[in-house]
Amino acid sequence: MMDWHLPAVSSSASAHHISRDLFVLTYGALVAQMCKDYDNDEEINKYLDAMGYNIGVRLIEDFLANSGIKKCRSYSETVDIIAKVAFKMYLGITPSTIGGNDGGNEFSLILDKNPLVDFVEELPTGRPSLSYCNILSGVLRGALEMVHLPADVNFVQDRLKGDDVTEIGITFLRKNDDKKSRRNK
């Protein structure tokens, strides 16, 4: 007979922690199986992105219902909410943000810790162009699209590929309309 003890923080915090760990382990097994099934890294990257997109489309409802976040007034505020609230809620981390270009529509999330690679030391042999965590790009893209903020999301740097940091780039595809934003205040 096994006796399971959950951390005493709160029942919902325990459930999220267990779910996150289960997701990380399951995700690693999924990527490993895909590496066996597909020869082309680009196919795997596209599949992971599509899978993430479908998750993001559904996850945004849970996020909006449970976070209490209201409408963001700028792209930089949106990226701040993604980093400080969404990543904390679902992955237990808070990436730092680097903002914008002259147009104010390009941002980066810098992940000091990436839970998806907790059990991964390096990319599988012979898979140099595999974007192991590409599911995150899809999740962000899908969630942003559902709140009418289409964006291009991709990995700029990846520690698994020998980079110093893991960086996710977000480029909002619509020009921010400052006049409209000011009217809604």
TrEMBL record:
UniProt cross-references to Pfam families, sorted A to Z: TRAPP
Task: Identify the domain of life.
Answer: Eukaryota
Database matches in Gene3D superfamilies? Trafficking protein particle complex subunit 3
What InterPro entries does this protein map onto?
Bet3, NO_sig/Golgi_transp_ligand-bd, TRAPP_component
| Cellular compartments annotated | Endoplasmic reticulum; Golgi apparatus, cis-Golgi network
The record ties this protein, via SUPFAM superfamilies, to: Ligand-binding domain in the NO signalling and Golgi transport
GO CC term (a single one): endoplasmic reticulum
State where it is primarily located.
endoplasmic reticulum
Question: Which GO biological-process labels does this protein carry?
Answer: Golgi vesicle transport
List keywords of the entry alphabetically: Endoplasmic reticulum, ER-Golgi transport, Golgi apparatus, Lipoprotein, Palmitate, Transport
- Quaternary state and partners of this protein? Homodimer. Component of the multisubunit TRAPP (transport protein particle) complex, which includes at least TRAPPC2, TRAPPC2L, TRAPPC3, TRAPPC3L, TRAPPC4, TRAPPC5, TRAPPC8, TRAPPC9, TRAPPC10, TRAPPC11 and TRAPPC12.
Regarding protein family, the annotation reads: Belongs to the TRAPP small subunits family. BET3 subfamily.
Q: Which PANTHER family does UniProt cross-reference here?
A: TRAFFICKING PROTEIN PARTICLE COMPLEX SUBUNIT 3 (PTHR13048)
Q: What does this protein do?
A: May play a role in vesicular transport from endoplasmic reticulum to Golgi.
Q: What is this protein called?
A: Trafficking protein particle complex subunit
Its source organism is: Pyxicephalus adspersus
